[in-house]
Each structure stands twice: as structure tokens, then as C-alpha cells.
Specification:
The protein has about 240 residues and is of the alpha/beta class. About 40% of the residues lie in helices and about 25% in strands. The site of adenosine-5'-triphosphate has 11 residues, from strand 2 and helix 1. GO terms for molecular function: ATP binding; ATP hydrolysis activity; branched-chain amino acid transmembrane transporter activity. Belongs to the ABC transporter superfamily. Keywords: Amino-acid transport, ATP-binding, Nucleotide-binding, Transport. This is Amino acid/amide ABC transporter ATP-binding protein 2, HAAT family.
Length: about 240
């Protein structure tokens, strides 16, 4: 991290019809950081990520990326600027092969050689994916599907990766493989904003975190501070 902000979310307010999901959410992600968003079910974590990538339009507030406002820009434009989302539930296409899913992530890439390099990068990160490129994605294990979802996001060559619940439903060893890969990507320079139920695991690989509660930021601090915080320990770490 070099201390400059890559993403700034300011006073975001988002509603689904008359249901206000985000009241006032502000956060920053610095270049090179891994930052975690934790919070109970329904706190607004997914809503925050969807708003950042333009899938939801905020009623109030701004999203600034690389010094420019991207608030409510079309999603394809936001992806082109360098943000990719690996969504909750993975969102892969079960009837397409693994390779076809990865190609979809690279739909803007006209250079076949660059595509090959990016594909090789994903396959080096996740050797399982390389073995299964021709397999129908719907027949993969949950962990393999998560690897494909992250791989597809990487194929758009993001500078900021948003991840929604990458460990959901996965066994501990598979979860560890996913988090090892995230650490490797971060060392290569990728900035990551992570939403996780597994607060201990997520904070352990993060520099900072935010705790959301009913659409507001309740707490923020360094990962070490949050891991020590009595409220965090009781509500999210089961301690
Ligand atoms: P989870 O961990 O359960 O995914 P979350 O923190 O990601 O929770 P969100 O999915 O952002 O929470 O939801 C925030 C609030 O918005 C919740 O009260 C939820 O019921 C509501 N909400 C989310 N999606 C919709 C929708 N499509 N229509 C109406 N309300 C919605």
C-alpha cells in the first residue's frame, strides 16, 4: 500500500423501493490494500459492492475510483476502468465450460496473446482450473466454482477486485486455498475489497476493516484493532 486512495465511497444511501438498505456508508480502499467489510446478514455488504460496480444506483453519495467519480456509471464502463466483482453465489454460467466462463470475463480483450497470458495466470493461481477448462462449470465442486468466479473477474484485468463471500459453503482447506491465492494476487499488486462472514480469516489477511450494521458503518480500524475489539469479538468472532 502506498497510502493513496484507490476507491472512496462517500455517504452512500441506497434503497430497494421504500426499503432503505444503506443509510450512510463511507469507506476508502488504498492502493495495494486488502480491506474487509464485515457485518451481520442484511447489514448492507452486498448492496455496497453492487453499488460500487454500478448494478444499483444510489439515492445519495458518491463513488470515486482513481480520482474520478464513477457514481451510477454503467457497469461495463466501471469494469473497463478496472473494477471487477466476483459475486456472492459465484454467478458462473453452469451450462458453459470453465474456459467459456473465463472468456466471458475477457470479452473486452481483443489481443489473443494477452488473453492467453491472462488465462495462464489464472491457471497458475488455481491449478484445478487448468485441469478442468473443458468441463461444464455446473459440474464443478463449490470450491472450484469459486475459483472460476474469481478467475473470470481477473480476466478483465482489474486493479480493484471486489469479492462477495468467497468462503461461503466451502470446506476449510478449500477456503485456505482461495485465501492463499488472494494473498498472492495482493503481493502482485492487486487491491482487494472483501466481504466475508468468516471475519477472523478475512481480517487476518487484511490491513483494515469496516463493520457495517443496518446500513451504516459502526466501526472501522486496522485489522489488528478490530480483531481485539470487544464488540467485534462477541458479534463476529464468537469469542
Ligand atoms: P448477507 O450477508 O445476508 O448477504 P448483506 O450485508 O450483504 O447480507 P444486503 O444483501 O446488502 O446485506 O441487504 C441489505 C438490506 O437490503 C437487507 O435488509 C435486505 O433484505 C435488503 N435487500 C437486499 N436486496 C433486496 C432486494 N432486491 N429487494 C428488497 N430488499 C433487498
Amino acid at each position: 500500500a502506498d497510502g493513496t486512495s484507490l476507491l472512496t465511497v462517500e455517504n452512500l444511501g441506497v434503497a430497494y423501493g421504500s426499503i432503505e438498505a444503506l443509510h450512510d456508508v463511507s469507506l476508502t480502499v488504498g492502493r495495494g490494500e486488502i480491506v474487509t467489510l464485515i457485518g451481520a446478514n442484511g447489514a448492507g455488504k452486498t448492496t455496497t459492492l453492487k453499488t460500487i460496480v454500478g448494478l444499483l444506483k444510489p439515492k445519495r453519495g458518491r463513488v470515486v475510483f482513481n480520482g474520478e467519480s464513477i457514481t451510477a456509471r454503467p457497469t461495463h464502463e466501471i469494469v473497463a476502468r478496472g473494477i471487477a466483482l466476483a459475486p456472492e453465489g459465484r454467478g458462473i454460467f453452469p451450462d458453459l465450460t470453465v474456459l467459456e466462463n473465463l472468456e466471458l470475463g475477457a470479452y473486452r480483450q481483443p489481443d489473443r496473446k494477452q488473453f492467453r497470458r491472462d488465462l495462464d495466470h489464472v491457471c497458475t493461481l488455481f491449478p484445478r482450473v487448468r485441469e478442468r477448462l473443458r468441463q461444464r462449470a455446473g459440474t464443478l465442486s463449490g470450491g472450484e466454482q469459486q475459483m472460476v468466479a474469481i478467475g473470470r473477474a481477473l480476466m478483465s484485468r482489474p486493479t480493484l477486485l471486489l469479492l462477495d463471500e468467497p468462503s461461503l459453503g466451502l470446506a476449510p482447506l478449500v477456503t485456505q486455498a482461495i485465501f492463499d491465492a488472494l494473498g498472492e494476487l495482493n503481493r502482485e499488486g492487486l487491491t482487494i475489497l472483501l466481504v466475508e462472514q468468516n471475519a477472523h480469516l478475512a481480517l487476518s489477511c487484511s490491513s483494515r476493516g469496516y463493520v457495517l450494521e443496518t446500513g451504516r458503518v459502526l466501526l472501522t480500524g486496522s485489522a489488528a484493532e478490530l480483531l481485539q475489539d470487544a464488540r467485534v469479538r462477541e458479534a463476529y468472532l464468537g469469542q
